[in-house]
Prior knowledge:
The complex is a heterodimer of chains A (about 300) and B (about 160).
Chain A: E1 11-13, H1 18-27, E2 31-34, H2 40-46, E3 53-56, E4 66-68, E5 74-77, H3 82-87, H4 89-94, H5 96-103, H6 108-113, H7 116-121, H8 130-135, E6 139-144, E7 147-152, H9 153-156, E8 157-159, E9 162-163, E10 170-176, E11 183-190, E12 200-209, E13 212-221, E14 228-229, H10 231-236, H11 244-257, H12 268-289
Parallel strand pairs in A: 1-3, 2-3
Antiparallel strand pairs in A: 4-5, 5-10, 6-7, 6-10, 8-9, 11-12, 12-13, 13-14
Helix pairs in contact in A: 11-12
Chain B: E1 3-10, E2 13-20, H1 25-32, E3 51-54, E4 57-60, E5 73-75, H2 88-95, H3 105-118, H4 124-130, H5 142-158
Parallel strand pairs in B: 1-5
Antiparallel strand pairs in B: 1-2, 3-4, 3-5
Amino acid sequence: MNTMIIEQEFEYVKPGSLFEALDILAQTNNVKIYAGGTDLIVKLKTSGINMDAMMDINGIPELSELTASGGNGLVIGSAVKLSRIEKHPAVKSNYSALFEALMSMASVSVRNMGTLGGNLANASPAADTAGPVICYKGILELMSRSGIREVPAEDFFISSGVSAIRPDELLTRIKLPAVNKNTGAKFIKTGRVKSDIAKVSFTVVIEREGSKIKSCRAAAGSAAAKPVYLRTVSESLKGRIMTRELITETVDRIAGIIEPIDDQRTTAEYRKELIKVIAADAFSKAWSLSGGKLI
Amino acid sequence: MSVHDITLTVNGRKVRLTVKSNELLLNVLRDRLLLTGAKYGCGIGECGACTVLHGRECVLSCFIPAVCADGWEITTAEGLSKDGKLSVVQQAYVDKAAIQCGFCTPGMVIASTALLYENPEPDEAEIKDYFRGNYCRCTGYAAMIEAVKVAAMRMKERGCDDEEL
C-alpha cells in the first residue's frame, strides 16, 4: 500500500448545477461523490475501491448553503464543511449534541475539509454525527432525476457502508426540525484519545414536562453494523418520571439490545459495559440540561 | 483518465498547471512547484505533516486531489516569511526552540498560524486541542505550545492585525 499517491485512474467531473449533477449520476456508471474527500480519498489509497469517475459537488451552490429555516430549524447542504457547521451559533445553542459530536471529530484540518453529508452518506457504524442527526429527527433529502425522497435519518442506515441512497441519487440536504423548549441533549463518545474513531458513542435528546419525560430519542454508535436508533427504549420512556433507578434500568436494557463487534478498537464485551456508563452519564446530563432534577 | 487545467495561487504567486485527476495537491506542491515544506507523513490525514493553508484555514494536502483545489489560495510554510523576515509564529518557534528533527515543523507552524487567525488569544487547552491533528514524535509539544502563546502575546503587544501573522 502506497499512500503517497492515488494509483487508481478515474475521470473527474465538477458539475456547476444540481440538474447537471443528477444527469451525471443517471448516465454514468460507478461514480463516487467527492464532497470533502476525507473518507473517499483515504479509501482510494488504502482499500482500492473501484470507481470510474469522481464527481466533485463543491461547485453546486445549493449544496453549500447552511440556513436557519422557519421555526428555528436548520437546513444543511450536503457539501457544507463540518467546521462551518460547528461555528454556526444555532448549532451550539439549539443542537448541542450535534455540536459536541462535531467537536469530537478528527482534527481541525479534517473538519475544514469533511462534510456532514459525507459523514452520513459514508454510513460508517461509527459516524459521530449519525446519532445526533437521528435524535434530532433529522431528515435526509435524496434527489434524483425522478424526484425527491425525504428519508428519516433512523431509516437511512442499512448496514456498514450501506445507506438508503440509490446509485442515481444524491444526498442534497440534511434538515433538522426546530427543537422544543425544555429539551436537553448529550453526545458522549469514548476513544483512547479525543480524535479517535469511537469505541462506542451514545446520544440522547430528552424533552421534559415537569418531572416526566415528554419524549426521548436515543441512539448508539459503534454498537452494531450501523448507527442505531434505540426505538423501543426511547418510546418506552415516554411519560415516565425520570429517576436514577429508571436510568439504571434503561442502560441495562440498552446494553442487552446493542450488537457490537470485536475489532481493533475494543471488544464487544467491553462495548456493552462501556455503553452503560456513557448512556447513564448522557441521560442524567441531558435531563439536567432540560431543566429537570434527578430524583 | 481525465486531465485538467487548473490555476492555483501559491504563496501569493499565481500558477497554471495541467494535472491528472488522481494527482494530489501535496505532490504538485513538492514535485512540480518544488515547495518541499509540506511533508508526506502518513498519507491518510492522521499526522498533519502535509498541512497547508487554504485561505486562512488549515487543510491536509496529502488527500486533496489537485484538481479539486482549482482556484484556491494556498500558503505553505515557505510563504509565511515576508521579505526574508520570519513570521511571528515562525520567530516564536525559533525563540522557544520548538523544533527537534523538524519533520512536523512546517505543518505545526501552518496549523499554529491557522489557530491564531481563528482565535488570536487561545488558552492552553485550545492550543492542545488544535494540535490534535499534528503529530510530533520528538518534542513532547511543550515548547510548541509555549511558542504559540508567545506568538499570540507578541501579536497583542504590537497591536498587530492578523494580516501580519
